[in-house]
Amino acid sequence: MSDLNDNDSQSISPFEFKDQLLAIASSHADRMMLNAGRGNPNFLAIAPRRAFLQLGEFALQEAERSYSYLNSGFGGLPETDGMLQRFEVFRHNHEDAVGMRFIQAALSLVKDQLGILPEQLLAEMVNASLGCYYPQPMSMLKYFEPVVKAYLRQELCDGLKAGDDFHLFATEGGTAAMSYIFQSLHANGLLSAGDRVALLTPIFTPYLEIPELADYQLHVVELEADEKSNWQLSPDELHKLNDPDIKLLCLVNPSNPPSVALSQSSLQALTKLIQSQRQDLLVVTDDVYATFADSFISLFATCPRNTLCVYSFSKFFGATGWRLGVIALHKHSVYDQLVQDKNDDEVNARYASISSEPKKLPFLERLVADSRSVALHHSAGLSAPQQLQMTLFALGSLIDSEGHYQRGAKRLIRSRYQTLYQNIGLPEEPSESIVGYYTLLDLGLLASRLHSQAFADWFLGRHSCAEFLFRLADETGIVLLPAAGFDVHVPAVRVSLANLTLANYAAIGQFARQVLDEFFQEYCHEQERSLND
């Protein structure tokens, strides 16, 4: 068993700590290892992928129309003239293909709902499939952007009119978006060493680690949510944002790892404070788990002027390997205002090679430039095939007006949640705000509910969360993550409910209970010895 203790589990990333557990859990050849430590889903969206492949076949046929006389594997750039008619012939010859029906529905939807001509979207799809052009515009392709914007309005705003006046920057997943944002905030003087940054904790570990890097040297102020408040913002914690020295607020909503969405009351309170008292506050909301919530409303919808939104397609569509994310920012944002107000000659000079009037360059365009160190701005942009698959995912949800895929994904995740707790011996129904992509097992709370508060006090006084994790890995082959690395201030472990089967979660529940019961037996023996002495 490893010599790492709770202090070690807090000083290193939980994902590095996980590697220690994986080594222990996989050391027994006579059993299967169950890794519920990472949130890579074991489900994925099929129809948009079929459409991607069908588009690829049609795109190749279009390319083969040129240079065929060379007979050497050459193709040419597709011709837009007559492409829609040729596609109709192709569709007729493949009318039974699921992917083809998807494409036809998509072309019809964008014409009816977004005012995009089918031939315009089809041409962009064909060229994107072949990857034969540099992405232009570099932030996001022209006809793909309004499709993904419509998807975000549908999924993040729940009917609220958040405004169409925002633009997107397609990125290599949500992680690249995070890196680009901090980099540009620093490059533009919106964040400087020693500035205060508020984080709504618990939170995804990189948000805790990036501000402390030598590159930024930011001071972190935590707005702590806890289990007693169902992971919501209390008035006292919210009050911390009244500090004018706090320049930026970052939150993951629904949260990671508690996997709880901000309640209506918390969202309203936060919105009211920003609009009335902190109109200068920069906000980054990471809404990757929004599509697993019911009737979700993002801070991007309620505070559009202040809020930059990060969204990733990886979890909901089972596409972590595709690296698909977007940054969304309204045109008339606080980010742009602050950049214009600063009008820093040194900062403006940074962008002089890409704009004749760099001081007027919007913050989103600065993000795009900074993503390629400005000097390589001409080669910026997410690859066109990646943007195509992202757009097809978005179209999948827009076409599925009844929400069949979304309901299925929610049902799958929540059935795993219930199975886990039933097999621990504490049946639970997820509340309205609980999304359930992850769950936190509070060891002290479990110990008291399963046995007694006296046992819980003994357990927390004598044993550590790290010891529980190593014992679980060694005896059962199950790997979970320590919650301390996400700034959870009680001894707890994170269980991903995305990547295993119902039977596996039943086993995790049973074995977690088994290990706690073993600790309880130790407690009982010790109590007996104390009485005998």
TrEMBL record:
PANTHER family: ASPARTATE AMINOTRANSFERASE. Its EC number is 2.6.1.-. Residues 167-505 form the Aminotransferase class I/classII large domain. Keywords: Aminotransferase, Lyase, Pyridoxal phosphate, Transferase. InterPro entries: Aminotransferase_I/II_large, Aspartate_4-decarboxylase, AspAT/PAT-like, NHTrfase_class1_PyrdxlP-BS, PyrdxlP-dep_Trfase, PyrdxlP-dep_Trfase_major, PyrdxlP-dep_Trfase_small. SUPFAM superfamilies: PLP-dependent transferases. Its cofactor is pyridoxal 5'-phosphate. NCBIfam families: asp_4_decarbox, PRK09275.1. It holds the Pfam family Aminotran_1_2. This is Aminotransferase. The lineage of its organism: Bacteria, Pseudomonadati, Pseudomonadota, Gammaproteobacteria, Oceanospirillales. One of its GO terms (molecular function) is L-aspartate:2-oxoglutarate aminotransferase activity. PROSITE patterns: AA_TRANSFER_CLASS_1. It is an enzyme of class 2 (transferase).
